[in-house]
Amino acid sequence: xxxxxxxxxxxxxxxxxxxxxxxxxxxxxxxxxxxxxxxxxxxxxxxxxxxxxxxxxxxxxxxxxxxxxxxxxxxxxxxxxxxxxxxxxxxxxxxxxxxxxxxxxxxxxxxxxxxxxxxxxxxxxxxxxxxxxxxxxxxxxxxxxxxx
Length: 148
Description:
Elements: H1 2-35, E1 42-44, H2 57-74, H3 76-81, H4 83-103, E2 106-108, E3 110-112, E4 117-119, H5 121-147
Antiparallel strand pairs: 1-2, 3-4
Helix pairs in contact: 1-4, 2-4, 4-5
């Protein structure tokens, strides 16, 4: 009985993770394809506004993979609580890695006016997922302190 319930929860969580992962990759890649030739698309060979752009693309792919694995391992218990959001997070990261492999850098097209940088949908998905999870976790801490 307990084992069956555990397996059911695990399968549902995995399903949500995979939906988030595929949706993030699809959304990011499709938007990049749709805007190609319509707006300025910059291939960012570095990270965060061009940092490390003098390094090889494969080094940045390797660094990206290592960071994703470390984030996955260090925050494993948090990711387990949010399977859909974790799928979106890792899907966005994978989508940017796909760009690095295919184009030698990440295709950025969404202008950030104040700093004159460009981002893409995957970058915003990464940011929004982290913000949602941080607020959810802080809210749980606040609620637990209120109950003490």
